[in-house]
Specification:
This protein is an alpha+beta fold. 26% of the residues lie in helices and 18% in strands. The protein is globular and about 45 Å long.
Length: 164
């Protein structure tokens, strides 16, 4: 039988990934889609409700480490391709494990790193298999300069690609 930790992870992981405006008021178990901010925030609150110890973390990753078409990556000319990402640390069996529920299982068909049959005791797959830098979310200072118009165009193209 799956632990409550694994059940909640899978519940949130199944929510389709789409980049969208972050609005804390819409983060509920019945949310139709979300990006790393929505999904990690939802899992965080569900795990706290169940009594788990959970910490929010920021992860710097590179979009180039994901299997995205070159034309989508090319939209990030001024911002660069390194972005911040929201994820979690969860205490499981007296140790902290990295838990990332970002990519929904269907994205495996596009080559994304998808956690399947998670044991609830080891790290899940992370946002990419590339180099990652982990930070405490409360003390993270973003040094990455993101050009809003460019990021919006990237998000629009990414969402279209992921839903195709």
């Amino acid at each position: 039988m799956k632990s409550k930790l694994v059940q909640l992870f899978e519940q949130v992981q199944k929510i389709p990934y789409r980049v969208c405006k972050f609005d804390r008021t819409i983060i509920k178990p019945n949310i139709l889609f979300g990006d790393c901010r929505h999904k990690s925030e939802l899992l965080y609150s569900l795990l706290l409700e169940e009594g788990y110890e959970v910490k929010k973390i920021k992860v710097e990753f590179d979009w180039k480490d994901l299997p995205l078409p070159k034309n989508i990556i090319a939209t990030l000319q001024k911002s660069g391709t390194v972005f911040p990402h929201d994820s979690l640390l969860v205490k499981s069996n007296k140790k902290w494990v990295k838990v990332d529920c970002t990519w929904n299982p269907e994205l495996k068909n596009k080559g994304f790193p998808i956690t399947k049959n998670w044991d609830g005791q080891s790290n899940t797959k992370q946002v990419t298999e590339g180099e990652l830098k982990f930070y405490d979310r409360d003390t993270y200072i973003q040094k990455i300069k993101i050009i809003k118009e460019e990021a919006l165009k990237f998000a629009e193209q990414l969402n279209k690609y992921l839903s195709s």
